[in-house]
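S1.2 Input.
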Amino acid sequence: MRLAAKSSPGQADARSRAARVGSAAHLVRPVTRRAVLGTVERDVCRPESWQREHYEEWVSRLGAERMRGFLVNLGDQFTALGVLARDGEDEALQRLAHDVASTGGMLGFLEVTRCCRAVLESDAGSAREARDTLGRAVGEAIDCLAEHLATQRRSAA
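S1.3 Output.
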């Protein structure tokens, strides 16, 4: 994993330069051991956003068109989860996280499922971190869904 560290938060183009040379993460100096380890754990050790083999198994059973409907609905739920996580609406977030945990896992979104369970099990001290982690996982899952649905549309055209 390549990491890039910039000297000052004011260097606007440092992140894009780092990405051009293949850096997977971007840190601001002084770089601490904790920051590096946290970045590696967050960005490298995390499982893929979508394990498509789970989804493909359901496609073989129910058909691509029916499963597309499930994905669109799940994408809407992911979007709502992201908003609730960002806004800290804990009661509504808990209800939706419970609903999404099983459906998301069944369709291969295991990281979102893990994060939903963490939100459900969090206490007052860990709730904010659980919400933030869920927000990131949902963002990545939405990107995967959008890419997949766009590819399907192009293939159908």
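S1.4 Remarks. The CA atoms of residues 85 and 138 lie 10 Å apart.
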